[in-house]
Every structure is written in C-alpha cells, then in structure tokens.
Amino acid sequence: MTITYLDHISANPLLSEVKSAMIRAIEADYGNPSSQHTPGERAAAVLEEARRSVAGLLNCSDPKEIVFTSGGTESINHAIKGIALAHGGKGKHIVTSNVEHNAVIRSIKRLQPLGYTVTSIGVDPHGRVNPKDVADAIRNDTILVSIMHSNNEVGTLQPVEEIAEITKKRRVFFHTDAVDSVGVVPVDVQKLGADLISFASNPFGGPTGVGGLFIRRGTRIFPLLDGGIQENNRRAGTENLIGIVGMSVAATLAQENMAARVAQYRSLRDLLLRELPNSIDEYFVNGHPEHVLPNLVSISIRYIEGESVVLMLDDEKIAVSTRSACATGSLRTSHVLQSIGREYADAQGTLIISLGIQTRQEDIHRFLSALRGVVQTLRDISPLYKKANRGS
Amino acid sequence: MTITYLDHISANPLLSEVKSAMIRAIEADYGNPSSQHTPGERAAAVLEEARRSVAGLLNCSDPKEIVFTSGGTESINHAIKGIALAHGGKGKHIVTSNVEHNAVIRSIKRLQPLGYTVTSIGVDPHGRVNPKDVADAIRNDTILVSIMHSNNEVGTLQPVEEIAEITKKRRVFFHTDAVDSVGVVPVDVQKLGADLISFASNPFGGPTGVGGLFIRRGTRIFPLLDGGIQENNRRAGTENLIGIVGMSVAATLAQENMAARVAQYRSLRDLLLRELPNSIDEYFVNGHPEHVLPNLVSISIRYIEGESVVLMLDDEKIAVSTRSACATGSLRTSHVLQSIGREYADAQGTLIISLGIQTRQEDIHRFLSALRGVVQTLRDISPLYKKANRGS
Asked: Which of A5, A371, A388, B11 is the most buried (most CB within 10 A)?
C-alpha cells in the first residue's frame, strides 16, 4: 500500500519535470557562474534563465529583484536582519505579529541585544491581523514591518495589500514571509506592494534547501552572507545551481497551472471540511473561513493529542502533521494556536492536513475513514474525554 | 574536442558516484527530516547517515559537531558572526590575516559598526602567517582568531596547528576557513585543535551550494539563520537533503582516496612547475614552495594581463582562472597578491591553474603548449614588454 501523504506543508514531493531538470543539471556539470571561461558562462546563462522564471512567477519588473537563497529561513533572516542593520541609524523599532514563523520571531529577537525593539500585534480568532493595528504600532523610529502572507499552521492569509499601503505612506519597509504562498496562490509583487518577499521552492514542488528573496529595486539592504560578489552583490557564496534549476522549473509550472491547482485544492479542501462532521465530532476548524490557503486545513480535536493521532495514522500509512515541522521536538504549545485563543488542551489536539498537486479525492476519503477510528480509539482511553462526557 | 579543465578551484565537476547518489535521492522523494511520520523518519535517517560520513572525513568525535550549511561562505559567516555576537560581552576584538577570503574579511567588516575591532596581520612573501604575530596580536579583549587553512589564490597552507596552540593557551576561539583544504588534504579536527572549521562540498567533488561548519563540542555560538530547531538548534531551515547526500558520498570517497589523490596532484603539480620554464619566461610562482595545496599552482606572468590569457586559452578550450571566482568582476587587484608583495603590474598577469581528480598529464602538456603561444602573442602586442626589452 502506498502512503496517503497529506503533509505537504512539511515537504512536497518533487514534480516529475523538476526531477528531470535537476538530473539533467547534475549530468551537465556546469561550471561556476562567476568564472570567465565558457563553462562559467554556460553556468551563468543557466542561472540567469532560472532568475527570469522565478521573477516571472512573482511578476517582478526586473529579474535582478530576485536573490537566490538556501530557503525560506535564510530569506527571512536576510530580509529582517539586512534591513534592520542597514537602517539602524534611522530607527530601531520593528512591527510584527504574534503568529509569525519562528524564523521571523527569532530573527527579530536576535536583534534585541543590539538595541532593536519590537511591537508584536495580536490577531483575531481567525488568526488575522487588523491593518489598523499595524498603523497604530508604527512609530517615528519604526524601520520595518514584517507580517506574513499566509500562516503555516492555520492557513490564514493576511491583508498584506492593505498593510503595504500603510507602510508606503509611513515610509517604513515592509517584509512579508510568503513561504507558504508563493507558487501556491497568486503573489504578484506589483499588486502586493511589499518591499521584501521571502519564499521557498518546496511549497510549489521544487527542492528543499532552495528559496529566494524578492528585494524591490532601490531597497538598501545588507547581505546576510558577506563575501563574494554573487547575486548582484546581495548574497555571497557559490550558488546551488542544481537546486536553483529545480526551483526554476517548478516556478514556470506554478505560473502556468496556478488557477487549475487552486481550483483543485479548493474542491478537495471543501470535500474534507464537508465530510469531516461525518467522521468526528467536537473539533474546531482553525484559520479564516475565507482568507485561507486553499491547500491547508487545521483542526483542533478535543480530548486527544495530535501527536498520538499522527503516529497512529502513520501506522495506517497516512502522513499528516500536528505542528510546523520546524518546531517538532519543541515541547511548548504552538504560539499560533495560543494567539487565536485555543485553550492549551485543545491546541494539543491539532492536526494539519495539507494538500499537494497529486492529492486526490480518494486520499481525503481514506484519511477521513482512518481518522474516525483513530479518534475513537484515543478518546476511549482519554480521561479528559471520559470526564467531559460523564455529565451528559 | 573536449575541454581541458584546469579551474577546479572555481568549480569541480561532480564525481560519478556523487551524481548517482544525488539522482537516487531525487527519485526517492524524501520527506522533511523534522516530521514525525515514516517519510520524515526516513529523511532524518538519511540526514544523520550523511552527518556521520562528513564527521568521519574530519575525524570528529561526535557527528553532532557538524552543522550542514549552504556552503563555505555561510559556514564562515556563521562562525565569525556567531562567535562574535555570542561572546561580545567578553570582548570585541578579532584577529585575522591579510590574505583571507572575502567571506572572512567582509564578515568581520560587517561587525565593525557594532563596535567590534580587528587586527589583521601580514604574511611573508610566500603568503604565510607567522604564529608569533598571532600571539602578539591577541589582547585581553580578543575573542576570536580567524586564520585560513589554505589560501584559495596562492595555495599556501597556514601553520594552523601552532596557531591553535596559542589560541588554546590564551582562551580565544579559533576559526579556520578550510574551504579549499577539507577533502583535498588531510584535515583532522583532533590534530588541528581549531574550535570552528568551515568547509564546502565542491572542492572534493560534491555539489556547489552545500557545505558545513565544524563546531567543537561545548562551543557557545549563535546561529546565523534563526528560526526552527533543525541541525541541533544551530542552523534553522529545512535541509538541502539532495545536496547533503551528494556531499556525504564525496566525503566518504575523499576519506578513502585521500593519499592517492594527493600523490597524483603532487606529481602533476611537479610536472607543471618543472616544464613551465620550457613554455614561458619571466614569471613568478606564488605561494609557499612546500606548505602549499597540492592541486593549485599560481603564477604571475610579467608584461601581460591574466584576464587576456584566460580568454585566449578559453578559445583553445582550456579553462583556468586569473583570480578567485568570488571576486570576478571586481576591478581591484587581488589583496592576496598585494599582501605577498607582488607589484600591481605583475599581479595583473596572474594565472591560477587548479587540478582535479580527473586531471591527467596530457592536460598539463596541452596547457603548457597553449600557454606558450598565448603569452608570446600577448607580449608581442604589449607596450610594457617592448619597453622592458628595448634596453636588452
């Protein structure tokens, strides 16, 4: 039996076209894109072709606005630390939200001993930031606002365009962590208005360990990786050309197939949410009902532990996750679920079901049927469940 | 006609075993090593197996001492900035040398607005640091010494073990940029004594964009990439598993074949240096005659420009370089050649010939024969050459 894989937020399988392109790149033995001879020029041509594909996905006016990185985390660190250090003379205040990825939270935290301060704004019970709160948080010494495009745990999409209007008016840089959005839902830098956009290749079927940072033309920023003059002097280090080739093919496919993929995700997500009450009861659906990633469903199931569900579903060859893979092993409750007001006990029972391009209706049905049994088994041994149902 | 490729310092072709392993990894569709289900566990097992191979190459006592990175530049930035920021409370002085890679020089420079100061020590005409100069430069507020293991432009190996003894005695952290040494010449962390060692996978036949940082057990250091808890909490971001698999196979092969490869490099290097006077005259050999990388020859040819030689040799399908690929496009003279006392004009005529595992005697002969013609052509049109030889 093959695996029913519903954990695409942690890792997406590579698209077959991406695999072929990467294998061709491995066999081609490209030189160093910075070398002056023919093998170097060939490598440089491949690199710039890839930059154009990725710039196309984001609708950049200039491919040079794309800097290739080792993934979403590097892009986020680059954006936040690079802007903060380059503009620290103007001010040292940063505005962010309570539901950001740890890469954002910890990048900002790293700056605090250097005199930077942060205002972190709350979200509504759907996980959404109110743009007015961003406007209110901006001070004279604010240099940067970092609000994510979509949340990796509950899927909520933030009102990024409205925030961009505010930051533009207030002359503050705006970074958005769009790691789980770019290549999944339309992200158009012309409409979006953010100055910096972090993204990664894996969410749209490219390899892990590869990503990019959109830096709007004219934005002064320090590199995170200092050294050579690669990436138009913005990111030192010889490029991961094989990975970049993979990302570039995935970007082209994402651009071409965006509408069809989103439609498919939506229909599978609707199916899942519609059928869920027939499998289990006493659960919450996390995230915004409308402004939400089409490929992610987060539910908090009462009286049980999400980790147990993950392991028992794994025994039935079904892969889902209970929290961000980046936070696995951490014992603390998800800060995102806390921020939307989930009680500790309910947050423990959270499952993230994330869809991929290969996901089909059968996968949803298999998951729902297995989930019913697993939840029942766990509740049968749950003292919390017994206690709660004693009175009824 | 195939290319005679003698620019391995810029980019090494992938070893065939590395290619096969990477292609298998692409086809295997590993999950996210941080996920809790079976696909995640499989990915985690592959990752830890790779960590053991790489730790073996460096003779680490614990594989956890290896942190995977996106390459030498990231490793160097991580080591320098991570130690400086973690120990800035103790002192803010850093000791380095005048011949370091730009990743070292610019990482330190980036720290200066934060109050860090640097003492950069000179080298002898062979490009070698005197350990006594390191000892003299260490002050009470020194926290870090960063001296490279081998120089990427002239090949000189530094007296790293003697420097490590000094730093140990003075309780100062010691980082060595061993990007062009690890996997090429023996680098044993037990003998070497450095606290931090930066390396990359490509110099020993693995892919570009992948590397590692050895962090000796017990060394307190901040991450450069903040975020998730990957890499034992030392480097956030989902790993580039395909690249890491490639590096791991290359590391195993490097460990097994080190002696034979070094012997082959030495014999080809000796051949090149022995035959060179039969091809050209009026040149300097840069670097130390004995303490030098076996796979690199740097020569400064008088009265001509290295860049012209590179382009003319390229027309004859021979690839060499004139300077570090990371500095291509920069108009300044190499700081390394300046440091060893080369005049501006002579430094302009520098060629770096770097050997790989596939290099054969025929490649050396082809290069020597082509070089003779190119140098003669260039000197025939060189006003400098005419002027210098008018008197004779």
From this structure: B11
